[in-house]
Amino acid sequence: MRFSEAALKSLIQQGEGIALEFKRRINHPKKIGKSLVAFANTLGGFLIIGVDDNGFVYGIEDEKYPAEFIEMISSSECDPPVKYNLFSIKIDGKYVILIEVPESSIKPHFLKKDHSAYIRIGDKSLIASQVQLALMKEANNKSTRVDFGESEKLLFDYLSAYGTITFQKFSVLSGLTEAESSVRLSRLIAIGMIRSVFVDSTEHFSVV
Length: 208
What we know:
Helix content: 25-40%
Shape: elongated
Strand order of the largest sheet: 1-2-5-4
Number of strands: 11
Distance between the termini: 34 Å
Number of domains: 2
CATH topology of the largest domain: Methyltransferase, Cobalt-precorrin-4 Transmethylase, Domain 2
CATH architecture of the largest domain: 2-Layer Sandwich
CATH superfamily of the largest domain: Schlafen, AAA domain
Order of helices and strands: HEHEHEEEEEEHHEHHEE
């Protein structure tokens, strides 16, 4: 994908969101790596370097250095490495770096610095929950199957009465281990029976 100056300006005017993030500078490997991992683990997105959080274009001084830096981050900070496309684009007489990260087909990706996987929630990159990790792995399963037992009955009875439930509440309610609870919830999300929503960075589950 190639971006004209006008297309880039239009993208910047949208402001940060689930698929768009700005970085004024490129001197924090962990922050850049976290963004790459989060986009790859979610729906993909664009990271623009040389633009501040408010959308003001500062530009970058060296076109070559960011390309080498991003390659280093992807290969040494992300596990497995994140695929991306990088473009240097001139806007208002200043160069910015546009990094296009497609949604990965081999997620989850982890940031080696803290051994965490990240996902995009709104305009933030947050550590993926156990359920989100299980859901990423479930995406590679071509034949997701759900056995409706007592745990699922308790879940839907609770949702019918209260509307939403947290992961911790479901684990206590069902008596399942956290690992089994995450798998059960991820499979129900995968087949479209429940959905995950975040409220103040806390994950809740509700009926679709």
